[in-house]
């Protein structure tokens, strides 16, 4: 049991740390969005970040066979997050440089999350 838990923490902790770092960047960016986007898309993006972190955090405490549903929820939130960021960029509420920076970091999160999901998916 302790071996499984320590492996899980090694996988999850870097993922949560990385995601938290990206969220902090977003959190400093959000107030710079125009008001029309800040209280609509901005809040939606913020909520996606928080719900994704919650799903990943929850999965880190569950048994292997229970993790998958929470990891899938996190992947859905990640896809929604990227979609809403793209819309925010398309309506010019987020400049290209910041959009690219966030998108690249979220791609890394996707790879990490995908690897963990493959690890817990039954063969």
Q: Summary?
A:
The chain is mainly α and 123 residues long.
Low-confidence stretches: none
Number of strands: 0
Give the name of the CATH architecture.
Up-down Bundle
Report the CATH superfamily.
23S rRNA-intervening sequence
Q: How large is the share of residues in beta strands?
A: under 5%
Return the string of H and E elements.
Answer: HHHH
Provide the domain count.
Answer: 1
Helix content: over 70%
Number of helices: 4
Described by the principal axes of the CA atoms, the overall outline is elongated
Mean pLDDT: 91
Fold blueprint:
Blueprint: H1 2-29, H2 35-59, H3 64-90, H4 96-120
Helix pairs in contact: 1-2, 1-4, 2-3, 3-4
